[in-house]
Specification:
Blueprint lengths: L7 H15 L6 H21 L6 H6 L2 H6 L4 H13 L1 H18 L11 H21 L4 E14 L2 E5 L2 E4 L5 E4 L4 E4 L4 E6 L4 E4 L4 E9 L7 E14 L8 E4 L3 E5 L3 E7 L2 E8 L2 E5 L6 E3 L4 E3 L9 H4 L6 H22 L8 H4 L7 E6 L2 H17 L1 H12 L3 H16 L2 E9 L11 E6 L5 H12 L6 E5 L14 E8 L2 E5 L2 H12 L10 H12 L3 E6 H4 L5 H6 L4 E11 L2 E10 L28 E6 L3 H15 L3 H12 L3 H6 L2 E9 L9 E7 L2 H22 L4 E8 L2 E8 L5 E8 L2 E5 L2 H13 L7 H4 L12 E6 L4 H6 L6 H11 L3 E9 L2 E9 L7 H4 L7 H10 L5
Parallel strand pairs: 9-10, 20-21
Antiparallel strand pairs: 1-4, 1-6, 1-8, 2-3, 2-5, 5-8, 6-7, 7-9, 8-9, 9-12, 10-11, 11-14, 12-13, 13-16, 14-15, 17-18, 17-23, 18-19, 19-22, 21-22, 23-24, 24-25, 25-35, 26-27, 26-33, 27-28, 28-32, 29-30, 30-31, 31-32, 33-34, 34-35
Helix pairs in contact: 1-2, 5-6, 9-11, 9-26, 11-13, 13-14
Length: 885
């Protein structure tokens, strides 16, 4: 870790935050500050007087024994506890020290008198097992030694930092980095080093690492290699570690691997881990977060640190072409697999008409068994064709037998699926407690005469082969025989070319009785059936319908106020549309929308988006009912729950000389939009657009709000705000300025009936130019290609996201990238755009979304979701185990 003297200013800030939350109301802020200053000042004086300094992690770890014995001063204990909380390495050292202390305290004195040899042997065996267990599960029986490295390539300058001196290193040099020593690269420098285990580590400019080897005392344990990243970016190609691991540690995370390619970027804002090949495990902030990342996936350790295209993370690497090509191959495989599992839309309502009369949940899905088998074959073929993927596959998948298991399951799915038609339906009814009943599956059969034999054979592939799974057909001999434990059962009823399956016999018998009596969902008048049939008229792939009225009872004043008390049905549908996925869901009410559910206005042109450019990363817009009407409804809702609400509002308006409805709500129209549109640094380029009915009144309302905030800040001793009018180029602007820094926080102006605001005049002016030029987001090909196909000419709300434009501009900042490589990077790391829109109709709210790429097209993380097919075995067992429920 960093060997520079401890930053007492940073520690002071942290201790102030801690004390601020624990100070009693009687304490003053100044008293708390004085206590911290006194403690820190006293500690500095004592440290300097004794000639000791807290230098890096070694200094803190030397304090562990004093803390355990109670000899540590309160100030030093606070500094140590704070450092241990933030530092992964010292936290581990503290835990190991504690375990060692506990082990020494728990040694049992030798028993007096005569004791049998059997007791002594058992105690000795127990001690041996405990030692072995500690060795396997912890690092107690290990020690750290210097890490051997070889500088294989060096472009620029790098230094061996030791004993407060920096010694230049040369290409080809071999050296040992003792614990606490560092290798540091200068600006405009990249270096490639080789570890003792043959793993390679590439360092970007201004990076700093330490390397140590953790050797285990117990036999059978391979040593671990640890790369301690203080700052900068490293790309690691980990060699096969045997029974050991390679770790990359920062002060807020630990990355563990055995053989893969990944990058770690670490700075003051946190760490970002990106995987190019293989799989890594990430532990964040010592919380034992067992997060696994696969190729194309990325993790950041802190909420304020956003993800970044992986191509940008590894752009400094001499192997950047290989890495980007690998990522592009992953995406290409996913897209090819998507095409393999594509299915046609279904329009027949045969299975819908045959559903049980009391169906409350209806889920129809396509028979994808043949497509999944084809997709799996494509994956294996393409992996073998790509050397990089082939090596990882052989080392990480094939060697562990996972591919054989998946192949086994897929063969079973393909065999079962080949017996069914194009659709499989799952239905749930309602039990006596108004909860969902046992599931019932429906499907049409392709070969009814041979189905049973093939079905039982296929189930043997998907379920345990110990003879505990039984399939019982209704009407056959032995149907009512008891099922011996631990056997499991699936009940089946074949009626010609149709099959019904259930894990519960009573459920299936009840359905048979309904069918024989001529009572199904298709024969009983039902609005639920009608809504589902409407979707089939348009063609369906994946369809979900929920009868909320049967499953959920929503009542009470709050439910009525929010408008959800009369929610009746939820419908959702997913289907492919070329190279994208479309989602459409609707919440249907039993009457026209009421309460807050009615605030979303009917679809409109949404002109506020005309101020947003086509390069926006994120944009959200909505149109609501008239603001004055919203205030009236809101006040009515609040008054119903609080008899004193109206009196309180009247008092507020009198004291603050404001009429909320007239002065604040009336000037505001119904359209709102906010966007991230432009550079992210040094200040995010946000835009806020609000429809304005009266610009002068709205400007006065803003002035009133700023004055209120400023007055409140003044009373609490905090820096306030002020609003300043400015005229630039003949246009009037309002500028909200911080009294503390004197810097503008926001600029705004009025144009064409809209208030346009942003962090700077340049951002506001760019928004005005975007609208004037017509080159705006709603007119871009990217946006319009994602619009859902329906009869609406506008929408009530929209959320647009597209991070791919970040790849191009950032690639321009990377030296050495030609035009072809930049285009490749943009294509390989762009994660696709998505658009979600909502329509407010009289008796329903409809949400429609589109995302570029299919089920597998977004990366190998989803491609490797094939491993989830192994859970099919457990799923069959779990369903069958419900027999007695």
């Amino acid at each position: 870790m960093n060997r520079e003297p401890i930053d007492l200013d940073a520690l002071l800030d942290r201790e102030m935050d801690r004390l601020r939350t624990s100070v009693s109301p009687a304490d003053s802020e100044h008293a708390a500050i004085a206590r911290v200053e006194m403690m820190v000042a006293e500690e500095i004086a004592n440290t300097e007087a004794s000639g000791r300094r807290l230098v890096g992690c070694d200094g803190f770890r030397a304090m562990l024994a004093d803390r355990r014995s109670g000899m540590l001063s309160e100030a030093r204990r606070m500094l140590l506890d704070d450092h241990v909380k933030e530092c992964v390495g010292c936290r581990r050292a503290s835990a190991e020290f504690g375990r060692a202390r506990a082990a020494s305290r728990n040694v049992t004195p030798k028993a007096r008198g005569s004791a049998g040899w059997s007791w002594r042997l058992a105690a000795a065996a127990g001690l041996v097992l405990a030692v072995i267990g500690l060795s396997v599960q912890t690092d107690v029986f290990s020690f750290q030694a210097g890490g051997m490295i070889r500088v294989e390539s060096l472009k620029g300058e790098a230094f061996h930092v030791r004993d407060n001196e920096s010694v230049p290193v040369q290409e080809g040099q071999e050296l040992t980095l003792a614990p606490g020593e560092r290798l540091r690269t200068a600006g405009d420098t990249s270096a490639l080093i080789r570890l003792a285990d043959t793993s390679s580590v590439e360092l970007s400019e201004r990076s700093e690492i330490g390397v140590v080897e953790r050797r285990h005392l117990m036999p059978g344990r391979t040593s671990d290699s640890i790369v301690d990243l203080d700052r900068g970016v490293v790309v690691v190609e980990a060699a096969d570690q045997g029974s050991g691991h390679l770790y990359v540690e920062t002060d807020d995370c630990e990355v563990a691997v055995q053989g893969t390619i990944f990058a770690v970027n670490h700075g003051v804002k946190g760490s970002r881990v990106s995987v190019i090949e293989g799989q890594v495990g990430v532990n964040v902030n010592g919380r034992n977060v067992d997060r696994k990342l696969t190729p194309g996936e990325q993790l950041t350790t802190r909420a304020h640190l956003e993800s970044n295209p992986i191509g940008d993370e590894v752009a400094f690497s001499r192997n950047v072409d290989e890495y980007i090509e690998l990522l592009r191959a992953v995406r290409s495989i996913g897209e090819e697999m998507d095409r393999a599992i594509a299915t046609d839309r279904r329009r027949s309502t045969d299975l819908l008409d045959a559903a049980p009369a009391q169906t409350a949940v209806y889920f129809a899905l396509p028979n994808m068994s043949a497509g999944i088998g084809e997709a799996w074959s494509i994956l294996r073929q393409r992996v073998q064709e790509n050397p990089g993927l082939r090596q990882w596959w052989n080392d990480s998948v094939a060697e562990n037998g996972v591919d054989t298991e998946i192949q086994h399951v897929i063969e079973g799915l393909r065999t079962v699926g080949s017996e069914f038609g194009s659709e499989i339906v799952l239905t749930l009814g309602v039990n006596s407690e108004n909860g969902p009943s046992q599931p019932l599956f429906l499907a049409d059969l392709v070969r009814p005469e041979t189905f049973r034999r093939n079905f039982e054979t296929a189930l043997d592939r998907l379920a345990p082969t110990d003879g505990n799974l039984r399939v019982v057909f209704l009407g056959e001999a032995g149907e009512n025989d008891p099922i011996p434990d631990p056997a499991m059962v699936l009940y089946a009823w074949q009626m010609g070319s149709r099959l019904a399956l259930a894990p519960n016999r009573d459920r299936l018998v009840d359905y048979r009785t309904q069918v024989e009596a001529g009572s199904t969902l298709g024969t009983v008048p039902s609005r639920f059936h009608g809504l589902l049939a409407e979707h089939y008229d348009q063609g369906v792939e994946w369809l979900l319908g929920v009868d909320l009225g049967r499953l959920i009872t929503i009542d009470g004043e709050n439910a009525a106020a929010f408008g959800v008390a009369n929610a009746e049905f939820l419908m959702a549908e997913v289907h492919r549309n070329g190279d994208r996925l479309d989602l459409r869901a609707s919440l249907v009410f039993d009457q026209n929308r009421r309460g807050i559910a009615a605030w979303l206005a009917p679809p409109a042109a949404m002109s506020a988006l005309d101020f947003v450019s086509r390069d926006a990363y994120l944009a959200a817009a909505f149109v609501a009912k008239d603001a004055g009407a919203l205030i009236d409804e809101l006040f009515e809702i609040l008054s119903a729950g609080d008899p004193d609400f109206e009196f309180g509002i009247a008092e507020f308006e009198r004291e603050h000389a404001i009429d909320i409805r007239r002065d604040l709500a009336a000037p505001i129209g119904g359209e709102f939009a906010i966007a991230l549109d432009g550079p992210v640094v040094p200040v995010p380029s946000w835009k806020l657009i609000v429809e304005s009915y009266d610009s002068e009144a709205l400007d006065s309302a803003i002035g009133w709000a700023v004055s209120e905030i400023d007055a409140t800040a003044t009373r609490t001793g905090s820096p306030g705000l002020t609003r300043e009018p400015r005229k630039v180029g003949g246009r009037d602007y309002g500028v909200i300025v911080s009294r503390g820094s004197g810097q503008p926080l926001a600029w705004y102006t009025f144009s064409d009936g809209y208030l346009v605001a942003g962090p700077s005049q340049a951002i506001v002016d760019r928004a005005l130019m975007t609208r004037a030029s017509g080159v705006s987001l709603p007119r871009s090909t990217q946006f319009t290609s994602l619009l859902p196909r329906d009869r609406q000419v506008g929408f009530s709300a929209a959320v647009y996201r597209n991070l791919s434009p970040a790849a191009g501009p950032l690639a321009d900042l990377l030296s050495g990238l030609g035009a072809e490589k930049k285009a490749l990077l943009t294509q390989a790391v762009g994660d696709g755009a998505s658009l979600t829109v909502a329509y407010g109709e009289p008796d329903r709210i409809i949400v429609a979304g589109s995302t570029e790429g299919g089920f597998f097209g977004q990366g190998l993380g989803s491609v490797l979701g094939f491993s989830g097919l192994l859970d099919v075995r457990e799923s069959v067992v779990a369903v069958a185990a419900q027999t007695g429920q």
